[in-house]
Amino acid sequence: MADGRASRKIIICPHAEQAADMGARRIAVLLATAVAARGRGHIALAGGRTPEALYRLLADAPYRDQIPWDSVEIFWGDERCVPPDHAESNYRMAHEALLTRVPIPPGNVHRMAGEAEDPAGAADDYERALHQACGRPPRLDVCLLGLGPDAHTASLFPGSPVLEERQRSVAAVRTEKSHTWRLTLTPPVLNAARYAIFLVCGADKAEALRVVLDGPVEPGRYPAQIVHPPEGRVEWLLDREAARLLK
Ligand code: 6PG
Is there an atom of ligand 1 within 6 Å of 153 CB? Predict the structure, then answer.
């Protein structure tokens, strides 16, 4: 689109449950299609709370049985620098909601080492694993993303230097608010994805969604606007509460 926004699809569901189901349905189709076409399917999971319902649906029929788990490789879009059993761990949430409930080979699950003493070293290690699996720049089949109330996505926060990163695939970032470290995929990886799927639910996301989708294009202030894969598609799966301020 002329204003620099990629071709995008917006689906508004009555409730968060339906949006999660739509997300599970889309991911099952996209991963099965990727495996049929290229022998492997690569997905980066989102963190936070919203995607948990989607992960639980992926672990149940019918979606569980539509996905060739032994040919799927799981990555993360970002991770908090905490141990994998920590309440804040994005890995822990996905492990409990999905990974313990599907027949995916352990070697296909690529966890970000949030527990590492050296976040920058952990980012380097993850970057090597990602390049080995997905090439360089790493082309994921699906990148599942959330949206924060401040319009961040993954761990790309407003005003962060990582928003300008064009070489690295994975970076260690220090969050301004909580002064904690995180690991995150960088804009080049998100924009190499075949499909970037945002799952955004809840009234607390309505204003962020309005500015990201209908406001001025200012990715430095609204980092989710960075995601517009030139050779991919962006799909927004919303519930009515989150979408209530959209034009
Ligand atoms: C994280 C996420 C982050 C998340 C948004 C929305 O590690 O926190 O990757 O980008 O997707 O903050 O989080 P909620 O789904 O909890 O609202």
Answer: yes
